[in-house]
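Hi Y.,

Following your request, here is the sequence exactly as I used it, all 326 residues.
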Amino acid sequence: MVKLSVIVPYFNVRPFITEALRSLRANVTENDEIVFVDDCSTDGTPDAVAAFAPQFRCEVRQIRHEKNSSIGTARNTGLRAASGEYLTFLDGDDWLARDYLPALVAEIDKLGVDFIRTDQVRCTARARTVYRAPIGPRGTVLRPRDLILPDTRSTSVDYPYSWAGLFHRRLYEAGLMAFPEGLHTAEDRPWIWKLHREAESCAAVNQLGYYYRRGVQSSLTQIGDTRQLDFIAAFDQLLRETAEDPEADRLMPKAVRTYCAIITHHLGQIERFEPGVARQLKSMSAAALRRMPQDVLDDTLTSLDHRRAGQLVKLRRRQAPAEAAA
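Below is the corresponding structure, written out as tokens. Let me know if you'd prefer a different format.
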């Protein structure tokens, strides 16, 4: 069996792909494989990947979507094609430190867990900042469900980055690795929650070597169109699935509080949205608040700071178009 499958989804990242490819060359062995998923790029990125491919020591496959979809859909395509004992991801505009992946494989082999989580280096222009996974114990086998709470502080489910770690194949075979199809943002939120609710074991390790490029102009985080609003569908799914959990009463306050935090985050940056999208954000967020368990939402609002609570209370009272017409 292939030891490690590295899944690299990309869309129009030609200015950055060479750095990603060189870093992969310094990480993969002859026992690994790389699965590139081209989400219908139009800028020559696939040609750059094809030209570089002979430099790898392992098997390389490139799969092309005939129609542009989403990062989650591209990751799912890669997962279906991957055959490794372990699975990991690299976004096409990021890069890795030398020998980072072999170190992760050694760690997960030693610990025997379902998945491991790692810290990251965030890169904006020339700045480099270490960003830690919010998991205290390092190199210790943990129960993922125990890392969801408390709801009042950042926990492991608030660190949703799929590329920040390594995953045993048994998670994919158990149906725990698939991303929601078609979502352009927040697709990793239902994904990380499902992993933490249903996987049996995990660990955080002190291997620092993933370089996450921030502020790329083509990134969806920099674009204020309707794709940004996919976070609502993502969190609606998260709430539905959490409501079906045997410990729903215990976990739902965390899910609702996180949803509220993301809504207020977007409201705080509403000026970057196109005017029509800004209006959609307000109306869709108001409807989302009405769909939440109202008793849990009441408790959440009393525990938030005055500014965020005020925003949400005002939004919650906002009438839906059909209600206003009636």
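Confidence is low (pLDDT under 50) at residues 322-326.

Thanks again,
Q.
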